[in-house]
Amino acid sequence: MLTRRVFLKKSALAMFGIGTAPAWLARALSASEAPASRKKVLVAIFQRGAMDGLNVVIPHGEAAYYALRPNLAIPRPDGTANSAIDLDGFFGLHPALAPLKPIYDAGRLAAIHATGSPDPTRSHFDAQDYMESGTPGLKTTSDGWLNRALLPEKIASAVRAVSVGTELPRALRGLNEAVAIDNLNNFQVREAEAAPSFEKMYSATRDRVLNGAGRDTFQAIKTIEAIRKQPYLPANGAQYPNGKLGQEMMQIARLIKADVGLEVAFTDLGGWDHHVNEVGAHPTEGRLATLLAQFGQALAAFYTDLGDRMEQVAVITMSEFGRTARENGSRGTDHGHANVMLAMGGPIQGGRVYGEWPGLEREQLYEERDLNVTTDFRDVLSELVVRHLGNPHSAVVFPGYESPKFRGFVTA
Amino acid sequence: MRSALALLCVAALVPGGTLKTKPHVDYRAFEKKLTKDRQIVHALNRLTFGPRPGDVEAVKKLGLKRWIDWQLHPDRIAENPDLDRHLRTIPAGAFAPERRIPPAQYAQEKLYRAIYSNRQLQEVMVDFWYNHFNVDMTKGADSMLVPAYERDAIRPHVLGKFGELLGATASSPAMLFYLDNWQSVAPNSLAQRFLKGKQAPRGLNENYARELMELHTLGVDGGYTQKDVTEVARCFTGWTIDRPNQSGPFLFRPAMHDNGEKTVLGVTIPPNGGREDGEKVLDILARHPSTARFISTKLAIRFVADDPPPALIEGMAKTFEETDGDIRAVLATMFGSKEFFSEGAYRAKVKTPLEMVVGAVRATAAEVSATNALFNQIASLGEPLYRKIEPTGYSSMNAEWVNSAALLGRMNFGMQLAQNRVPGVRVEASRFSADPVKAARQILFTDPAPETLRAISDAAKQSGPQRAGAMLAGLVLGSPDFQRR
Questions:
Q1: Chain B within 8 Å of A403 (Cβ-Cβ)?
Q2: Which partner from A7, A74, B148, B340 sits 20 to 30 angstroms from A205, CA to CA?
Q3: DSSP code of A87?
């Protein structure tokens, strides 16, 4: 009987056509049997709901920003907690992101501004889909960029691609094995007696959808069995914040440190769709500040917890599109276009804000209302895939996008 | 909307051969008719939250056609006295307006109805339409507004006219609050000039206008532009709430309204229309051909298959247009189609967490005295009820629900339920057969897959006779077979 893996590899070959299989695929199929334990790891964080990038990495040197947002603008840096934290004289961090400033200063955090998709959609659903599939404007792609970023291996770790949470996001779906783990402590069949029966059913079933996920599940259970039983204490005094993101970043840190073959991890945080009350009476209040505090603390705790291991780890954040440059009528912003991405980790050439700034004057705005895109999000992700993960075939990861422009934020 | 035909057209435009496009969908399985016995289990799995013991026999006796017609007319069905008994355990006034209600508490009613109601299709459709017109109960005043929303805007219309359902949601305080329209003010309106204070609304908010077209009616590819979004937002200025923080009613405030001329999807809306502007937009949208297709497709994805055949959608959309959006008629067209009772549709859908958990309770004839544990279970499988933040609602596509964490959760829940370890839920362990084939049929109401039968037969041999029944029932509830409907 054909195993699922073999089947998948065959279909991968079929997909590219006989004789035209890319060299990496052939190489990978004959690659070494033993997966290296200390892998390079890429962690992707999706901020669902369209984060307001203009209030996260703030163009405080731009007068138009203050003109467009009389109620929402974060004041120019003045050293107080109610103003932007200056980064380079032009951009500043939202004050709720203060825990990230030391990482920026250490050269391990970079921002890439005015990034986004060439597709004009302002639909959350479509834009998230495009960003996760890696094919803007194309709804037929059924797998995700993060899954395609994995190079095929003969013996792959069952937890090489992990989504922390109760769903497997589109970004991670595809030919390579990928599992969703909500909590490492509970990742088991609780009734020991029933476990072998379930494993039998799910590995034998002819239900192709459930068979694949079922097999991956039981492989993963075995892989993490040993670490599940040990209590986890974050290192270096790292304190993860309460809430979803902090807890999920801690699970990822735990998997990385356990050396079980993790290569790509995904997690998300929703609630960024701030049409109303985005900013309260003070810049440090309101819905954006609350969410950013959780976000900043989670990233900082992860960085602290990993310590030296951060040298092999890169974190990238993304959100489906940005928000209107001008504030709306309800102390909020509506759906816009370009946004900001943050990159953190040992391989990141940080301490800089990358990208060309398109400006916020009326004629500089996209459709006279939104920040223009000057960096395709695929440029950012390709650079990580090629330079950090070492997968040279970015056009396989981002089909139809042949020559990405690297910004140089990842150490070559 | 993702009709397979449209997908193929898009795929053909893509240059180069390396793009993975959706494989050509083979619709031949939708031509093959199901056997009579399978038709009954299939219909029960789709029109209800899963069969209870005795349901198959009851439908057989009544006749499948008559039973479907009966489900389409819930007022003709005598309600289950058990439902009333359970609903009475919820204290009177628990969901009174002006009380902030935690979703877990409010979900008692939904879960009791899903488990015990004889009007199953009605409850399935309440779930479908609430999800279509999703409101997140944890957003501010919506913790007070949702009970009235579901009771008055959704429930009365679930089998009625789509236009009336749409109108009821559009003017409901819950939706006005959730998608922020209550704060949307015409930029040059009187209200903007006279309202004082930093918190006073002072311009358009296009949140509702966009989701109204993208999610509620036309669909994202239904043919509207950013200009239409802004124009629709202008039409709905002034549609607000009287005292939102005290559960006040809908109110049209002329001072907030944009009195200028608007153009929506090519139709001119003359100036000074007041509240009528919004009503006109709703009419245009409810009668738009894109809406007929979008709603038909979404229904077919819920009831038939992830990739429903285009011919089925055509038929449903035609009924939608001919009957002015009569939901009951559209459903009747679907249930009467050859595609619905075909091999292509049979077991083609993976149960959502709600369907799996409620289906398990129904299949085991469990007695529920508290719904909290069930609510938490459904949430941990990925579908927190009344707490979907995004206006999209939950997907009913298979891929959304199949992953390691969720499958393990389902296996563990199956075992827990059968062994009476779910707080507030009691199953009669003695009713489960220790014979593998019988045990499987008790839960699935049909034969198990050979692989499943083999696994539970091995388990039966190893288990002591005392525990075998519950063990087998738990394994079947967690099996691949039970995850499908």
A1: no
A2: B340
A3: S
CB contact under 8 A, A190 and B415: yes
Residue A37 — very low, low, confident or very high, per pLDDT cuts 50/70/90?
low
Band the pLDDT of B340: cuts 50, 70, 90.
Answer: very high
pLDDT at B201: 61
Percent of chain A with pLDDT over 90: 82
B26 exposure class (CB count in 10 Å sphere: 0-12, 13-18, 19+): exposed
With CB atoms and an 8 Å threshold, state whether B449 touches A330.
no
Cα A245 from Cα A264, distance rounded (Å)? 17
Label residue B1 by pLDDT band (50, 70, 90).
very low
Give dist(CA A264, CA A153) in Å, integer.
14
User: Looking at residue B47, what is its pLDDT?
Assistant: 98
| Structure confidence at residue B197 as a pLDDT band (50, 70, 90) | low
What residues in A contact B17, CB-CB < 8 Å?
Answer: 16-17
DSSP β-ladder status, B239-241 and B250-252: antiparallel
| Whether A210 and B19 lie within 8 Å, measured CB to CB | no
Interface of A with B in 195-234 (CB under 8 A): 197-198, 200-202, 204-207, 209-211, 213-214, 216-217, 220-221
Output the pTM of the full model.
Answer: 0.88
Q: How many CB atoms lie within 10 A of CB B445?
A: 19
Termini Cα distance of chain A: 43
- Averaged pLDDT, A318-330: 96
CA-CA distance, A180 to B328, in Å (whole number)?
Answer: 39
Nearest chain A alpha carbon to B348: A207
Q: Using CB atoms, pick whichever of A166, A202, A214 lies closest to residue B405.
A: A166
Q: What is the spatial distance between Cα B193 and Cα B249, in angstroms, rounded to a whole number?
A: 25
Q: Which residue of A has its CA nearest to B12?
A: A140
User: Torsions phi, psi of A345, nearest 5?
Assistant: 140, 175
For A401, nearest residue in chain B (alpha carbons): B19
A-proximal residues of B, 215-254, CB under 8 Å: 215, 220, 226, 229
Residues of chain B neighbouring A271 (CB-CB closer than 8 A): 389
**From the CA of B74, how many Å to the nearest CA of chain A?**
34
Q: Can you read off the two tokens belonging to residue A305?
A: 């917890």
Q: If you write DSSP's letter for every residue of B116-178 in order, what string do you get? A: H-S-HHHHHHHHHHHHHT---TTSTTHHHHHHHIIIIIIGGGTTSBHHHHHHHHHT-HHHHHH
Residue A47, strand partner residues = A269
Contacts of A367 in chain B (CB under 8 A): 226
* A195-204 vs B450-462: helix crossing angle, rounded to 10: 160
Around A346, how many Cα atoms within 13 Å sit in the side-chain half-sphere?
14
pLDDT at B396 over 80: yes
Give the angle subtended at the CA of A270 by the CAs of A267 and A274, to the nearest 5°: 150
Residue A265 has pLDDT above 80, yes or no: yes
Distances, alpha carbon B436 to alpha carbons A64, B197, B262, B455, B473, in Å: 73, 71, 67, 9, 9
* B57 interfaces chain A, CB cutoff of 8 Å: no
Phi/psi of residue B178, nearest 5 degrees: -60, -45
Of B370, B361, B384, B348, which is closest to residue B134 (Cα–Cα)?
A: B384
Average pLDDT value over all residues in chain B: 92
> Using CA atoms, how far apart are residues A219 and A235, in angstroms rounded to an integer?
28
Which value does ipTM take for this structure?
A: 0.90
Q: What 3 state SS string does B440-467 have?
A: HHHHHCCCCCHHHHHHHHHHHHHCCHHH
Q: What pLDDT is stored for residue A226 in this prediction?
A: 84
Q: Classify residue A14 as exposed, middle or buried by CB count within 10 Å of its CB (0-12, 13-18, 19+).
A: exposed
Alpha-carbon span A216 to A402, nearest angstrom: 32
Q: Are B217 and B294 in contact (CB under 8 A)?
A: yes
CB atoms within 10 A of CB A44: 25
